[in-house]
Design brief:
The chain has 224 residues and is α+β, with helices and mostly antiparallel strands. The chain is built from five helices and ten strands; from the N terminus they run βαβααββββαβαβββ.
Length: 224
């Protein structure tokens, strides 16, 4: 198979793992159970009075792993470890510089997203390189605050900045369509193990990156 049409660019300097990226809440959200996401007064103000309530997007660090996994258990239940997409993550590290957490004003992790290096093609040789996104999760204690959308936009922008050609995921088109994901070019691609084909979506960061893409996705990232 031909390689993905990804420009040959070097990785630019990136912030240190503790670097903060501040943004106001927008439309889907969460908070850690020990520290509520918003007080009732803040919640009303954010929706009715235009009060900006900051959440920080940070590069994930090893110190975040336990709290992050606890959030995933609350948001998704233990089934997140049994999904087909987790087969591509098991024993691997996320793509360089593409794992993020959202923290609320109290410092609690209220959201998480990671992207993973994958290829498609027999044996992974001459396969197309891309990214698999997931899981995206927001703590159920803070709904409709915009944290999920904020994490998605940040992850997509950073993947594009780093020169990646395409992102794939398994999720609801009604949600991910707002970020440009469709099933239009994933028909000849497949996930390992069971999954719902209509929920297998892709986003081109480089025009034509998914043209004629085919084959089963395989992990290609750094081993943990």
């Amino acid at each position: 198979m031909n390689a993905l049409a990804i420009p040959s660019v070097g990785f630019p300097a990136i912030p240190s793992p503790g670097a903060l990226h501040h943004a106001p809440l927008a439309d889907m959200g969460s908070a850690a159970l020990p520290a509520p996401c918003l007080s009732r007064a803040e919640e009303v103000g954010s929706r009715g009075e235009g009060v900006a309530l900051p959440v920080s997007i940070l590069d994930e660090t090893p110190a975040d792993f336990a709290e992050r996994d606890a959030l995933l258990d609350r948001a998704m239940g233990p089934r997140w470890r049994k999904k087909s997409s987790h087969r591509l993550r098991r024993g691997r590290l996320p793509a360089q510089g593409l794992a993020f957490v959202a923290r609320n004003a109290a410092g609690a992790i209220v959201g998480t997203v990671r992207l993973w290096d994958v290829t498609a093609g027999e044996g992974g040789r001459d396969g197309r390189a891309g990214l698999l996104l997931g899981p995206l999760a927001v703590d159920p204690a803070c709904k409709s605050a915009g944290i999920g959308s904020m994490l998605m936009r940040h992850a997509i922008a950073e993947a594009r900045r780093r020169g990646h050609g395409a992102i794939l995921l398994v999720g609801d088109a009604s949600y991910y369509g707002r970020f440009g994901f469709t099933a239009g070019k994933t028909g000849e691609l497949a996930m390992p193990g069971p999954y719902e084909r209509h929920r297998f979506l892709g986003l081109e960061l480089v025009e034509g990156a998914l043209d004629d893409a085919r084959g089963v996705l395989r992990a290609s990232g750094r081993k943990a």
